[in-house]
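Aggregate trends can hide what the representation actually does to any particular protein. For completeness, the protein is quoted in full, as a sequence line and a line of structure tokens.
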Amino acid sequence: MRPGRCKTMTNIMRSWMIFIALFLALPSPVMAQTTDIAMLSQARDRLVATLSAEDTDYTEILARSDSVTGPMEVIAGNQTLRLGQGPGWLLAVRRPEGSRPPFILAFVGRDARVDMKTAKTLPAGFASLRSAARTLPPAVLETRNQAFAFLVENLLGHSTDGYRVHAAKTMISAPSVTIPLWRKEITLNGGPGWLFFVDDLPQANWDHPCRFVLVSPDGTMTVERATTPPTNMDDFEELTSWPKADLIIQSPKDISGRTRAGSTPAARRHAVIISGGANKWSNYPRYWNDCAYFFATLKAHGFLDNNIHVLFADGTDPAPDRPDGQSSPLDFDGDGRPDIEHNATRQTVALVFDQLAATLGPEDILYIFATDHGASQEINEYPYYYPFVVLCLWGEDITGEEMAAEVNKVPAGIVVGIFEQCFSGGLVERLKGPGRVVMSASRWWEYSYAMPPNYEYDEFSFHVTRALAEPARGDSNGDGLVTMEEAYLYGLVNDGWKSELVDHSLANQGEHPSYISDPWDLGRQVTLLGRFPEAQAPRYGEYIQTETGEIFPEDPGTPMGWQADDASWPTDIPFAFPLGGRTYRTMSVSSNGILFFGSADPGPKNDVDALAQIVALAPLWDDLTTEDGDIFIASSPQEMTISWEASTYVDQVPVSTAARIRPDGSVTFLYGPASNQFTGRLTGRDKTIGLSTPRGLHLGLANGQATLRNEPGTTFWPIGLQDPAFKRLYLLTP
């Protein structure tokens, strides 16, 4: 089942006494509260509700009968899965035959929080848990409050925690209702009844999963899946509570004085800031804050007012353009002068880029910052294998191809793009090319997220802007500059939504920031102060990384016969290998595309935070299997190369990668002729690339790339190497 399919739910009710208790507990006007999960049967209901929200198929629910306390660590085969914090209940989900992995382990807390992780084996102690018989109440649902209580009890699993629920202000009296959405309309049959709009992922920007529910007086629920809210939210009112985000004016310290000889004059630096917001109901305060923070950061870097073009929502129109019924302030930095000069429509986008095309030349730099909502084009349906996306403007969309055509009009020597919206990686794919440095919060098949707890900014763009605004955070090498590469890596490390495990089950709903620079080192020369060819390479964990001319080995060496899933093997190193201030003569090779030193096997659950906890080299850490492949080793006193011929466990995508280590401590990651393609929304198929030592974490720039087939490799160099040629080529010093 995927968005757009309709299902009717009948006879899914709990006892009438529980229903009456919930109804009587509701205040007037109704405002849903998070309800504690008090028993195992309710925990099962909550789990089933979560699976339903994410459209996850299953065949059986199992459980351990006793309530558990403390942090949950479950041994499943050779995996240790960490599942939330008790008290609560431990359950398991058996997926349909042939599914990989076959199980999901879940912890449901008394506070209604659900934490799930996939598992390849079912731990002992789980027994099948059947649902309790449900009966219709002896009376009809007569009010919206009763219908809402019924929906919370039976569709959401006893709690609104993690959801936002809106209700139509009037009862639907007709047999059906048609609801205009942003790009289409949907029809629900089963009326008369009460209409509800359930936002299933309210932390994310649109488009993302939501549901429309029509509850009839006899308890029948008709559910229609969608990916956007109604066009007109004035017909609805919210029944749940959500943190209130305020407008924030940032005042970064003026660092324009850091300009030095050879940098780009302020007159040659231009910026376009775009945030459409879609409409007044979805133009959240965080978009104003995103834009205002970036605007203030530009000003702190000496940008001229006339060189910053802001296209925001309805522009200077005084009509309400925010969910609170207010009009957005035009002044971003509190100086009393209006900074928003344009609306964010297709016509205005074309006008601004036409003006830039007529005035900019090869010596100019154009910076583009975009936030708010994004979507996949209709021709690119789930699981979104192709980079066909749109950026939401004010009341309309612009496709990635159309946006690229506008940018391509401008003959600037360098173009920098920072994109926050959902599916924003599609713009990276459309805008990449010579003279371009582009980054995004997510890839073209992923949502993007706001920053908790109050959702006053979007996560990735906040951290990127913060790195640029605060050199003490963003400057990794102490050269006094924050480059686009440094800003991206700072955002990547600090992004709290970057794990594929943030979603409950198998939807892979996390965001994975993407980055492409052409040529590869342009992003480490460009700052908001302009281009500095002498800028040093970013430095993390006492390593720098460079693109390498080395290629994947044609002869990978000796086949080791290491053909297994989730296994690792110790091996000797033919020289003393320095790594992070220590020297190693042995290491372990994992079937999951990672080398680790002196620690337990990290397993297949890859993410950045897990990598930071161990000493490891990860050319392509993922849930891989070598059962139908092998691992190869080629050794000499000068270097040792470990090559993987593997495939992704979940869907058998071929993977070929290699790690080459040397006595001087340098490490090279290489990518071979296998497809190495990581596109489409599927958990268990998303790589982590980088190295981690006791002195820090250094992530590879290839983390966000969708395909690594025969891509240039990456070499990580220890800072201590003293070869003058190395310094000249890789540290970019004069």
Summary: Residues 266-506+515-538 form a domain with the Rossmann fold fold (CATH 3.40.50.1460). Confidence is low (pLDDT under 50) at residues 1-33, 722-734.
